[in-house]
Amino acid sequence: MPFGHWAFEHINALYEAGYVSGCSAEPRLYCPERILTRAESSVFVLRGKYGTISDPPYPPPDTPTFSDVAKSYWGYGWIESLWTDGFTAGCWTDPLMYCPLSQHTRAEGSVFFLRVKNDVDYTPPTPTGIFGDVDLEAWYAGWVEAAYNQGILPACQDD
């Protein structure tokens, strides 16, 4: 990653602390502009909760919880641990799916990190409409407002 990149210091600090490893070992790359998948995010969330762990915090179950995450998938243990801790309900309910290759949205990140910070039973306050691009009826409205108000995620554009 170029030294002048706006996130260089933040990413380097996360790397030095053992929270991230990047997108390539040889050559060492971070790929800061690439969007995370939900599977990759499961690792971030659990390291946010447990620190610089190199393996999932729980042994993976013999039977997959999610119909779209095979035991042979690299993220299986991480995703199952995310479920065990109550940080995710998946992306679909019938059948229960996680959507590991889908992009991880800022709304989903709000839920994950508010639960890490405040506990898995956390429920955000009723949204008030502070964002012009978030419908008050959207499932994530309260989550993104709470993440913003608690300093977890900045607004995506300053006006």
What structural keywords apply?
3 domains, globular, two-stranded antiparallel sheet, 5 helices, mainly alpha, 34% helix, 159 residues
Commentary on this structure:
This protein has helices at 8-17, 38-50, 76-84, 106-118, 141-149; strands spanning 24-25, 28-29, 92-93, 96-97. By secondary structure, it is mainly alpha-helical. It folds into three domains: 1-34, no CATH class; 35-104, no CATH class; 119-159, no CATH class. It has a two-stranded antiparallel sheet with strand order 1-2. The model has no long low-confidence stretch (mean pLDDT 91). InterPro entries: SLH_dom. This is SLH domain-containing protein. Residues 1-59, 62-127 form the SLH domain.
SSE inventory with pairings:
Layout: H1 8-17, E1 24-25, E2 28-29, H2 38-50, H3 76-84, E3 92-93, E4 96-97, H4 106-118, H5 141-149
Task: Please outline what is shown here.
By secondary structure, the protein is mainly alpha-helical. It has five helices and four strands.
